[in-house]
Design brief:
This protein is an alpha/beta fold. Helices cover 35% and strands 24% of the residues. It starts with 9 loop residues before the first strand and ends in a 6-residue tail after the last helix.
Amino acid sequence: MRAPLSDLPIVLEDAAVVVGQLTILNDVALTLAAGAPTVLVGPNGGGKTTLLRLAMGLLAPSHGRVTWGGRIDAASTRRAIVFQRPVMLRRSAEGNIRYALSAAGVARSERAARAAELLALVGLSELGERPARKLSGGEQQRLALARALAKEPQVLFLDEPTASLDPTATKAVEDIIRTVSERNIKVVMATHDLGEARRLAGDVVMLHRGRIVETAAAASFFDRPQTAEAGTFLAGELLV
């Protein structure tokens, strides 16, 4: 029996994204392999969200290429992405998850049990019947994570998952990210919060002006940055 295809490693080879006269990403070379979370950091407008979309397969590179497990076919059910402001469907929290399970091809007879498992995973068991759009911002973000996990991805991309959340909601989301990572799901996330990057990252990729300026294990990046850009950014100074 053949082993299922893997999307890992995801390899970007001299990948660029150009829109009109604007270069958003330029000559990006990066390998995303199994293991602890990879966290993207850098100033706003540096290219973090575009890099996530490119690695997810939502964007095609203007030049260069992206491969998933050695394949150039971007179609896959093994990847999922949660955007910074996820849209909630006009149905209950559980209904949102059931919809995602249906889209993932889960048999109708299995959806109730799977939805209950996912609600429990993200700490929303008591809110399954509540309209999703009536949930708080932090609860909606946790529900978005549950929906993404409905397809049992091998890779989970997260774009600023705790932006604008209070400390309690942030901790709840970070705890889910740790649990997901412990289940051997590769997490690739962008964050503006260096404290969060310290808490979660196995390795760090720093982008500035559409280029990767430094890639390193988290401890090395934070304690011994190798580039002037990283040193300036970590010092809290403006990087222009």
